[in-house]
Amino acid sequence: SHFRNELDIFTPEFDKKRTHHITSHKSDKDTLQVRVISNEGVIKSYDMSAIEITFEKMYHIIDKERNGYRSGQL
């Protein structure tokens, strides 16, 4: 089976309690869709292969995107 995983990363201003939310759907290939969400809506979105994505790598993506938002690098 293949899955499309959707990773929504919330900026600190958008949601102070939650950093992210992930959902999975059956698909024809293994894909991770990343969306960064702020008070203005989706401010960044991209797809990447989900093959060999571990929770450690996923948390690195979350930290990178949240820190990039804080420093204005999105």
Please summarize what this structure is.
With 74 residues, the protein is α+β, with helices and mostly antiparallel strands. 22% of the residues lie in helices and 46% in strands. The protein has one helix at 55-70; strands spanning 2-10, 20-27, 31-38, 41-49.
What do you see in this structure?
The protein is of the alpha+beta class and 74 residues long. It is 22% helix and 46% strand. It has a 4-stranded mixed sheet with strand order 2-1-3-4. It is elongated and about 35 Å long. The N and C termini lie far apart (33 Å).
What does the overall shape look like?
elongated
How are the strands of the largest sheet arranged?
A: 2-1-3-4
Oligomer: single chain
Number of domains: 1
Question: What Rg is obtained from the alpha carbons, in whole angstroms?
Answer: 12 Å
Report the β-strand fraction as a percent range.
over 45%
Low-confidence stretches: none
Which helices and strands appear, and what pairs or packs with what?
Elements: E1 2-10, E2 20-27, E3 31-38, E4 41-49, H1 55-70
Parallel strand pairs: 1-3
Antiparallel strand pairs: 1-2, 3-4
Structure characteristics:
74 residues, 1 helix, 4 strands, elongated
